[in-house]
Amino acid sequence: MAALLNSNLPLPVFRRGKVRDVYSLGDRLLIVASDRVSAFDVVMGEPIPDKGRILTQVANFWFKATEDLLPNHLVATKVEDFPAELHAFRDQLEGRATVVHKAKGLPVECIVRGYLAGSGLKEYQKQGTVCGIPLPAGLGMASRLPEPIFTPSTKADEGHDENISFEQMCSIVGPELGARLKEASLALYRRGHELALERNIILADTKFEFGLLEDGTLILIDEVLTPDSSRYWPKETWREGQNPPSLDKQYLRDYLETLEDWNKQAPAPALPTEVVEAVRARYLDLASRFGIEL
Predict the structure, then answer these.
(1) Burial letters for 212-236: b for 16+ Cβ neighbours within 10 Å, e otherwise?
(2) Which of 44, 91, 104, 122 stands the most exposed, by the fewest C-beta atoms within 10 Å?
(3) What is the CATH number of domain 105-249?
(4) What is the predicted pLDDT for the residue at 5?
(5) CATH 3.30.470.20: which residues of the chain?
(6) What does the alpha-carbon distance between residue 190 and residue 192 come to, in Å, rounded to a whole number?
(7) Yes or no: domain 13-102 corresponds to CATH 3.30.200.20
(8) What pLDDT digit, counting tens, does each position of 223-265 carry?
């Protein structure tokens, strides 16, 4: 049996990510969301209390809300429905763990942008494009785009992902599958944007990951529309031309950008208590808008 990671679960470790620990259940997996937080691909030394439960519950909400658009990897979300050997670990797993189908992950990340922000804004200000896609003149910070755009990237095991064109993505996964990924991503974003607005949230951009089951079925995997994979703004504070406050970990990135003596490489700098609490408050605000009680 593989060594266990920060856990006494009686399962072999399948993979440990920056935020999630994944354990093998044969043809299925157990995913456990920790309270770890990363920024610039570096895991911080201080956890964000309750973050793992919030990520899991938000993702579960969206998996259910989008299952008519595309099947997903969820098998069970409650410990009582997990394998019997895990029932004794209810306190450790409840609310932050899911059992999922094992799928072959595709080596691309499918990003959809509906508003101008982040690296997209910087590129637009220089050359009027986002990931090489021309956009109309006159847009500013936080402007809503005329239509959501699909801007895929590579999925790097180490280092940073790199933006690629739709054509480059198709050369990696094939043109037929590439077209399906683009269509599914845009449909998922539009559903997410619509339902988020009903909760007074703007879904500015997000990324999706997809996988293939053994029979070739395309499914949504990993996480979906969480504050770790998405940029969320409170609708009531959004103003075109201004940088809106976020309901995700952008606050953490902004703080880290102020540290002149950190080169965005491990080891991570120590986070002040007030920064940890401010990041947690944003996750809790988002959770409350989804009706999630911890």
Answers:
(1) bbeeeebbbbbbbbbbbbbbbbbee
(2) 91
(3) 3.30.470.20
(4) 43
(5) 105-249
(6) 5
(7) yes
(8) 999 999 999 999 999 999 999 999 998 999 999 999 999 999 9
